[in-house]
Protein 1
Amino acid sequence: MELIIVRWLHIFAGIIWIGLLYYFNFVQAVALPKAKADNTAAGITKHVAPLALLWFRWAALTTWILGAYYLERAGVGLGNAFLLKGAAAPIGIGAWLGTIMLFNVWVLIWPNQKKVLGLVQADDATKAKAARVAFLASRTNTMLSIPMLFFMVTGSVGHGMPHM
Amino acid sequence: MKTPLDSIAGTIITGLALTVILYFFVVNFLTKTAV
């Protein structure tokens, strides 16, 4: 029962994380330039984006911790997954992709978004560079989410890949 | 410098291509040693 609940919460947190990632990339990044053009961007940058980033980064961490806990408790083993050993290889690829994405969230996206949104002081040149880094890290995560989801699904028990 | 990740279509296509590459990598080089 414990494993079912952990897995359920892992997927729940993952939906919040990746759902907000897709919101940032498919909705906000497209709408923001248009909002800036008619001077309505403040509603997004002051009220929507900081709250979305709050849920985004903590959901990312929660997803990773619950996933790591599940792998260890379910008998797969965190070490076997990250070392891509045997049957743990597919879920291990998913775990690596998820870990890279978590790194991007906390080390590249969040610190740079704080500068872009004015939550920390930065001059215009620094803000422009921060916006580019955060954008590319966010797009990288969107790109990595596609194979990550594939390997999370196929790496699950009962849905093995060929030759397993 | 523009990259494929600058567009949504480029991002999705790159993600799908990486999925295919990783799939064949796992199937051919990793899971054959599975117990």
Note: Chain B has a mean pLDDT of 88.
Protein 2
Amino acid sequence: MDKVKFQELEDSIRNASPLELASKLQEAELYDKKETREVIDEVYKEFENQGSLVDEVVVPVFMSIADGFLESTATTRKLRKKGLTASRIVSDCQSFSYENPGEEVIIPNGYDELKNARDITIEYGESVRIPYKNNRKVYDDDSKEYYKARAVQANGGRKNLVDEYTGERNITAYQNNADNRRNDPNHRYQAQPDHIVPLAKVHEQLKGNYALSDEDIARIANSDSNLALTAARINQGEKGKGGKKDMTNKEFVDDQNRREANGEDNLGLSQDTKDRMLRKGKEAGEAIDKDTNQTVLNNITGKGTADQKLYVERYKEQEKKLGRSLTQEEKKVIDQQLAREKQISIGKDLSKNAAGQAKDYMIGNIIMYLIKPLYYEISDIVRNGMKEGVGAETIREALKIRFSRVKDYVVSNTVHFLGNSVKDFVMAFVSSLIEGVISLFVGIFKQILKVVKEGIRIFVQAGKVLFGKHSSEMTPAQKGDKIVQILGGSIIAICGIGIEALLNKIGIPEPWSIVLSTTLSGIASALFMLLLDKIDLFSVKAEKRRMRIEEIFDERIKDIREAENTFNTAAIETMREQNLQFNAIKKNIWDGIETNNISTINTGLFRLASFMHVDLGYNNQTEFVEKFDSGELEIAL
Amino acid sequence: MGIFGWIGRKARAVAAAISRGYKSFSGQATFEEADRMYEDIKKRFEEHKAFFEKEVENISSQIEEHVQSINKSKETIKTELFPAFAEKMHILKDIPVSESYLKEYFNGSNLKVDSIKTKANLYLIDFKKNPFKSNALAIISLGFYTRKKAKETLEKVREEKKRLEEEMVRMDSELTKLKAINEALDIIASYYTSMVELYNALLSRLDNSVNFLIIKCLSYAHKIVHEQMSIKLLPKTQQAEIMAMVSISKIMKTMVDTKIILEGKTDIIQRNINSAKNDLHIQKEEINKLNEAA
């Protein structure tokens, strides 16, 4: 009940004539006539009608598809880098109101963070790293020749070496020392050191890694674990029968299998050879991952190895300065200094990238901050009408009101927003920095780091739910529900990475694998949230409904008590005043009777008539006599 | 007791801990909380309702007494005072007295107090009524289903508790209202009684003035017909006496016609006009005799 109603109630009692008072008191409504059961039924209905299928399923699914397609072009990917996905824009805009603007979530989900960090490495690989094409020599050092030489040396005086792929001792070291027992005019059995994982592939995999120099990549690619001595017929292939060349072992085996299945010419590899090649391919891949991770770790901790070109130059400079050759100790000091310089350079790159990413998130946040009230106004215009929505008379007035609302919201929240933005920037910087570091690693170690990071993120978010500034406003069930949502959301986001890897594995290339995995993980996330909502594991819905019911009844009870209080005070005071007034008038009249003073009696009766709200039809004796004699005065009893 | 006593105590403690753990796991603890709450609110609500009904009965009977008193006053005014006044005034003016008046009855509070919802309406699981089924469900669903149902039961009971709180507050406010009405009617009834007393006192004073007028008219050899009677002929004091009587009659006419209570039964009572007419006839004859004598 509003203040006006309370005032009306009070006025009706205080202004009642003495004879009306009882009926006015009876008339007073101290409580809403609506039955209490009806109140509960209405809340149940309200909760049942919350969230249509369109809002809960169609919109999120559609938005996930939109998010996926936004991954297909470089321009739209820039939106994602700013944290602006279709899902976020729609969800944030729809939940916005001036009363409850909602909190900005600056850091996107784990999958989007990974994609953002990956974009940085892709850009580095494309624009900074020396390309592989036409520059093979940069990445192909003499190691493989040393590898062969060591193998020949280890073979002793024997003519034939063991082919590491076939396992047969049937390859010869050099053309001038061929095994003449075999008819091999084209030297197809000559031993050749092969990059198990081809150089091109290693370059492709590591070119974006700004913690690795070109020499680091060459060292990793040409390490013993990625080399195998095999016959030229396998390494270079035979005409029309295929060859390994720039294929991975798996690609090569698959190609041979395809040829065999199709009845095409092939190298006739045994199953043992194929298995061995696959095993060696796998082991080499793992070794490359291990080497890469170790090198990155060394580089970012200042224990790395400087590039030969750099340290040779530095040695020379120093020797020139000293006028003598450097001792091993002095060289070691220079090496350490160069390793630290490398570390600082990587650190700078990491910080620059993290700051750039955090800045992008901030820009996205500012865009959202401005878009939300605009969206609110537009949707309100569509829903309630331009003028009707704000109760304006003219369109001009409506526009003015709406514009003022947007302006007031933006202006009044700017200080708070900026304050939060500083904190958000720091958080986004730290998160992007960690994501950047993770992006430098490869293989299972990278996945472990990613999972650990997501774990920490979940832990921090759960901590906020449990102990944050809004935690006191939440019940344990609501907290539990929220934590499950955070946990599920993060896990599904991480699953996006797995889906993408799977899609790549089955041959779907980028960017379509990213488009699909973004869409699928978005849909999975939406369905997971819907499932959680339907299961209502912690009975949060029932709890919220009960809280809403309690809130309504508390308000109604407060109203009843206030109305009762107003009623009681007004009634008691009015009765007391009226009673006092009546007794005074009555005494006045009796005094007139007892003293035989008709004038006093009439004065009292005039007061009594006024008190009882009775219109006598005359105001004095002269008027009375005239009206009485003329018959104008009606006296019907 | 010794060692066996110690073992017994420890065994009981372990059993109690296991029981507590199981109750938490199955949601039985939550259900028991809901059940306790239901029983508590039921008791409180029913006591409150009983008190309310008793109070309503008490206050209503007091109200009815006041209404009866008012009705009685109205009857006296209509059947005795007004006819007497009309009779006294008939020489001067014909004063019609209507043959009906309002008689009121109070029919108590019209607050319909709702009852508490039954357990069947509120309980989604009942460990007391169906222990086997509930525990089986708890084990099959690893407690998820039964805990959820117990929690929802608790929420429903809490909702009911809040609803009944409003019902109780409504009852309280209704009692406040009835008490105020009772008090107001008590005062109003006293107005009527006081007015009847005043009317009687003023009515007896009227005789002098009317008689004075009759004598004055006769001295002018007027025929005593009220068309020719003018109170202008009277001294100011007598005019004032008549005015006083007319004024109080008008006030009391309003009092008789006013419906004092809003709700309840209202009868239009036909007064016993014949007896009044008879009284008038006797008085008229006396006046004629006086006239002839003059």
Note: Chain A has 23 helices and four strands.
Protein 3
Amino acid sequence: MSVQTEVITAEQARKNTLNLPVETSLEMLRLLVENIKEYAITTLDSHGLVMTWTPAAERMKGYRPDEVIGRHFSIFYPKEDVSDGKCDRELEVAAREGRFEDEGWRVRKDGSRFWANTVITALRDAQGNSKGFGKVTRDLSERKQAEERNKQQSQDILEMATVPAVQVWEGILLVPLIGMLDSARTQQLMERLLQRLTETSSPVALLDITGVPTIDTQTAQHLIETIKAARYVGAEVILTGVRPAIAQTLVHLGVDLSHTTTRSSLTGGLRVALSLLNLQVAGTTRND
Amino acid sequence: MTNELISVIKVHDLLLATMPSDPDDATVAALQEETLTAMDQHEVRGLILDLSKVEILDSYFARTVAETAQMVGLMGGETVIAGMRPAVAITATELGVTLGRTRTALTVERALELAGQRNNATRRR
């Protein structure tokens, strides 16, 4: 029953719309194109020259209608895209396939860039004659920025997790390594350790390998180089967490660590670090 | 003939030599020349070589620094290299530079502290 009512209403509405004078519906369409804020809706002739311009397009790109109508739409694209022939290619695809969609950098009148989604649609009349193109552009800068921020954040977290470097005391940096050390990771280790040492102005670093399951010749070599590089910037690295199995491996591999201070425990390493800085840990005595 | 890009000055009983960011071979050669001359002229305990401005290290520069430290040692002084940047330190390890007993410090300030410690230790003896 209610379904029937709805159908009748919809039918009625359709009839009403059909009964509207053509001028009114055209006027409504024009108002839509002019009032819509999120999309810059413009039309181009078959050569790509701008034919119509809207307030939204002006807000997005900065051109007034008299500055832009009759000019080629390549003025909205970065130089490298224009010289690459991107604009011609877009019109070509739109003409052939009816539609072209793209996401990329666009340029405002003042030269600043924004990230946009663009859809170019070929406009044909009932007989199929080409009447030019419709171009709908949407400013996606905010979404792009959010994406970039997220990417940067996850990269920072990943880097932190690969080579964590925490300051345990003024002048003492602790780098606890967990998991296998491949050459990419040891390279990262060297760069990040040196960077953190100079940033925090720490003369001592504790490189703890308790969580490293095994060490091969190459990894050991990388570690020695890292320790050497740290010495060049003016810091001493103490290798801690040398478990019996690791000690055996290092000796069997013939790795020479005689110029490096090594300890089995982190506590032992911390003691060495404190003494290098002429610091002492004192117990408190209670007077009550 | 002094090179205007480098400075070698005497601070109390130490020499302080500063290198520019991208020294050419002539400047590098001048560093060794001027440091050794200054070692000869003044009664100093050693040299602080400030590399904090240096951005590019080539094999000639690296070798000259190591050699100069050795020569200063032969003349009875101790060298402390100060302020080497991470990127330069990485290049140095790649070049296989060996600094032997030459000491290093994060900053010139810390290098002076290191030299001071040694000084006090000698006085106490």
Note: Residues 163-276 of chain A form a domain with the Transcription Regulator spoIIAA fold (CATH 3.30.750.24).
Protein 4
Amino acid sequence: MAAGDASPIAARALPSGSEGRLSAAASWLLIAPLLALFVLIFVVPVMGMLGQSAFDPEFTTRHFEQAFSRPLYVRIILRTLRISAVVAVGTLVLGYPVAYLMARAKGWQAALIGACVLIPLWTSVLVRSYAWTVLLARNGLVNNGFAGLGLTDAPLRLLYTEGAVILAMIHVLLPFMVLPLYGVLRTIPADLTQAALGLGASGFGVFRRITLPLSMPGVTSGLVMVFILAIGFYVTPALVGGAQNMMVAQLIASEIAEAPTWGFGAALSTILLVATLGLMAVFNRTISFERLAGSRA
Amino acid sequence: MNINVPATAGARVRVENLVKRFGPVTAVAGASLEVASGEFLALLGPSGCGKTTILMSIAGFEHPDGGDIRLDDRSVLALPASRRNIGMVFQRYALFPHMTVAANIGFPLLMRRLPKAEIRRQVGEVLDVVRLGGLGERLPAQLSGGQQQRVAFARAVVHRPPLLLMDEPLAALDKKLREEMQVELKGLQRLLGITVVFVTHDQQEALGMADRVAVMNAGRVEQVGLPRELYEEPASAFVANFVGESNRFHGPLVERTGRIGALAMGGGPALRGLVAGEATGAVGSPATLIVRPEMISLLTGPTADAQLEGVVTDLTYAGSTWSVLVAVAGGLSVVARVGTERLGGPALALGDRVGIAWNPEDARIYPADAG
């Protein structure tokens, strides 16, 4: 009854000794298999790739020069960054309300929203991308629908456009935005919202002053995750964008598969890797905010 | 400390026949309360008695299924929480973790669109009142529990609401700090002249801080009264049991002469006490007799005055008194609190046979309670 309320505090004060912890040697031993696998199939190939981009067989910057001097390649790199940025912002705009609703819903409603977000995630990217080609084709559902409603005289060119690539990628990547946002939104205590309301804030005021700033860690991690996944996207742009809307991953594939120019392919991969790491570094700095916001007495 | 704050006129609060159900559970079953302007009322009761639901209903975070809530004679049920102009201190303070102390405290002023300079001035003033001057630029996580508590209080009163609600605001603090904050909050409340409704399950806190205490049980208000009245004239066996220490005996009412009744316990002697209230049933109905430990006399020699007899099983020294545990027939134990000088040195030892006696006027008989 009454005394029970004090227990969470007592539980937190439990002494944290070294009991139940593994020795350093045992920990390393347990990590060793994963570490070995990681080095073998990740670190070694990446190093090899970095090496190939700059040694052919002597040290050379030829491949990088090629990537940045040919207008076609520069255009593809810029297009990749542009599409990825638009997709990241697009998933944020579409995903935030979903995550917000999901965090507030209870019982079967929460389960339903969760299923709507997760089931596409479990469906093959290939299947979902093909679905868009069916929808957007000259005689696809959308064009037939428009024609049937008398909105268009001739079929619109929908497939093989940058818009189609962005649309399909937003669809494919939406769960990667919704899930981190949901994770953060769910941890915002309800009493903060109540406190803000009680102090005179409107519903929008609560969102602007409390919910949105406290969900910024989710916003940044969602943006980073979607952007990084997007700049390496291959299947979706290949299917719905075609050769005119090529992204860097397609270029790498064609350089290596069609005309085996490993050095140039490796240089392009290195550019992607550096762009990704650079972005991570920038966002890591903003994440320190998360630590402040997360520590609540 | 130089404090220059004009006292607010505290709001009068009326809770009328409030009902609130959560699915099949009735959290509040027709509770009524009245709080005078500037009064400090504590809602006291065990977990789940509905006290927090009443508080949340007044604040506007719960929507009652029946009854009315009036502030200064105006019903507030139609108003959303943001329009009720009530201050609230949450159990875990609910400070905005991403805002500085000053921004937290200034929040209600910002929401009321006061000019920035004015907000800064008022926040500075209230920071001095709660003795946090100079900490305005800290984040809540950088403050101690007691300091966070003060920020929560300052934020709840900076816009001078006529009513302040507090939901177990001291529960998260350790005992010493809690006692200090009790004194401090009480002082601040007097200074501001604000009406306070304070929820707690800690009877010492309620009796110590409040002008009046409402004891709640199972969604109903059992008794509202001065702390002294609750202790000395509890209206029900529940109140007697919940407020202060007590010995309880259950059995049928076997006899009644005037206001004095007798209760039979097992095959033992009849226990006498004052029959409380008119509602108490007729002879033969189940009843509960309650007697405070300090009302009991322990008799060492053979005497006819004793209502019960037993063996001393425990003696606890508590400074001015001894707490004596006496095992009596039927597997029951009786706690008596006797002055140390009355014991007269070695008069009592573990294993002694003693008589237990009390003046019937000092014990109370209630209709049997379920507990």
Note: The domain at 13-237 of chain B is CATH 3.40.50.300 (Rossmann fold).
